[in-house]
Amino acid sequence: MSEEGQFFADMMDRLCQEHCLQAVIESAEEGVFPEQLWGEFQGLGIPLMMTPEEQGGVDASVPDICAVLRVAGRYAVPAPILETVLANAALSRAAIKISDGPLALVFGDKTIGEMLRQSKGESLGDRISFRKVAWAKEVQSIVIVASSSSGVVVGAMDSKTCNFESVPAMSREPRYKISCGRASVKTGFVDDDGFSDEMFRAAALCRSAQMIGAIEWTLDTTVSYGMERSQFGRPITKFQVVQHQLAELASSLAAASALFNAAVDQFENDSGLVAAARARLGDSVDTAVSISHQLHAATGFSREYGLNFRTRRLMQWRDEFGSTEYWRRRVGESLLGARYEEVWERMIGADGGEE
Amino acid sequence: MIATQSLKLPHARLPAAAEAERAKVRAFIKAERSAGRLPAPVEIGMRSSPETSRKLAANGWIGMTWPKAYGGHEKSALARYVVTEELLAAAVPVGSHWVADRQSGPVILRYGTEEQKRKYLPTIAAGECYFCIGMSEPNSGSDLASLRTRGDKVSGGWRLNGQKIWTSRAHLAHNMITLVRTSKEEDRHGGFSQLIVDLSSPGITVRPIINMVGQHDFNEVFLDDVFVPDACLIGDIGAGWSQVSAELAFERSGPERWLSAFSLLNTLITELGDNASNAARGEIGRLASHVLALRQLSISVAAALERGEMPNVQAAIVKDMGTRFEQGMVRSIRDIMIAERPLGASDGFEALLTHAELWAPAFTIRGGTAEIMRGIIARGLGVR
Q1: ipTM
Q2: What is the rounded CA–CA span in Å between residue A185 and residue B46?
Q3: Which pTM does this prediction carry?
Q4: Which residues does B343 contact at the CB level (< 8 Å), separation at least 6?
Q5: Are A308 and A222 in contact (CB under 8 A)?
Q6: Which chain A residues are Cβ-neighbours of B290 within 8 angstroms?
Q7: What's the pLDDT tens digit per position in B274-287?
Q8: How far is A190 from chain B (nearest CA, A)?
Q9: Pairing mode, if any, of strands B192-198 and B233-234?
Q10: Which residue, among A188, A189, A183, has the nearest Cα to A122 in the 3D structure?
Q11: Cβ atoms within 10 Å, residue A43
């Protein structure tokens, strides 16, 4: 991470402490977009972070964005920061107009990419639809990234003319089934066949950053809650069975963080670590959710207590931008067909060759 | 933030100098394999082979981090890490010298006298001198501070009386670093000293305890009026407890904690070829993701040790999670095999799986029980 990344993360922390209050999260979950909070993000320059300086950004890298999103995950920020930042990066690459208003981001397959490539700006009607898009109705435009037979297509679809159908989300963040309806799609091209996969990996890693932040919150809060909560005449953390559960939660976070940090560090090298990090994180989410709730007991199960705002997001996020099972299979498939020694060589991705 | 902060360990990359060892180790393994000296294993764990130990020594892979003056090679802990993970992933039989290289040598280097360093380290680094660890006793397992083997001061040395138990490879080792009570201090952790015991000394009886796998790995070691010269005391009289606590940190975080059954994963993937269900692909990916996460943690711990830090909590996490993961992995691989190949695995894989399942209960016990590890982690979190 760069110094700028650290700067933005620190600013984000201060901003969230002041503005991302539980009341804001609660009302966002009732369907009120947090305009004021978004205004604060705009003031900080977050939405355009990944665009070049002449477009108002700071050319931030994926590790920089991850640092910001880790903080956002801690505070359960109820706004499409990940989606907007990456969507703007894609728009900028494809020479389409960027925006610091909220944006949605979705990845299409090759069929969609091909339709977009040939669309020449006219409406595609219901031929294009997506099953689950975050924040699609709340934003000005929905940004589509898809490979085509010739380069990667980026499409910006005006959300006002789309058809929406709300789909359930544990996080109570808005998620929709959408079809394009009368919407016209502005398209642009990125002359780099790897761009779509790179953006998808970036989105998957950025979701990881949010999850790591949220798990950190659950660990810290569960430890401090356990030290305050007394039963049988002493704080429950004095019981060995509770200590061991906390140790398990902490270990699970340490393992997921270690691999996440490596994936961030190696992002540019496309090393397969993003897939492994997402696979490992899926299991850590399960551990964090079950242990933090177990130790908080009924208190943690009540809506007004902060824990569920993190755990519900963790349950939702673990299967977004590739489900946990999707990423596990990607790791598994990268190993199948290997000869005996090759398993280890492929797994750690180090060839033993000269540096 | 307090709990999370206590876990923070900066991400560490393996430096190029450490990575440079990898190609050499792989070339060695390839040569051994093609010469037929390294057959696919039908047992998990570290097999013993003095011949292999001498070969590894000749390549400079024992005592790697020690000063050249004592037969070492002055490489970094991270270079040693790379060599270790490569050897273990390929199931090279490193059992003979393992304890001497990982644990006994570093203890002698850190606390030993000049004479001890000159006497033991070069032969360890040559792959010819093997050690075992004499800690547990019949009534002192996890509660090590309750141990009763006594060392009484006599002219020119110490007279040892008592019994050690569960001493792995005592029957194959030349020396044992043992922890004994040398004074009757009231303090629970005071009054212990570490001594190097030559296992051929009069008064030593090593008796095998066959384990549930059916193998002879651990032993009872009886000490009856065993004379140990003053020159074999390690460090200070009465400082044994703190020396041992530091020693255990080296023991806990290495890749042997999560690569001891890796040959199962290698073999499973070889057996399946390209023919595996989606469920199997997912589960293999899940297992691999755990191995990779443990690996990154181990690398961070090795980097911290290299910087002179003592990351005890993270080392305990590697040990606890690594061993619990391996235990689960054994069962999971058996399940995959049953689902994917209902007619059975190859004979070699069947033998390997059976051996691994029988060993698995020991993973979370040896080298510090899971309960003790979680206690250490809980203390790091500030709740104990």
Answers
A1: 0.96
A2: 62
A3: 0.96
A4: none
A5: no
A6: 255, 280, 283
A7: 999 999 999 999 99
A8: 32
A9: antiparallel
A10: A183
A11: 11
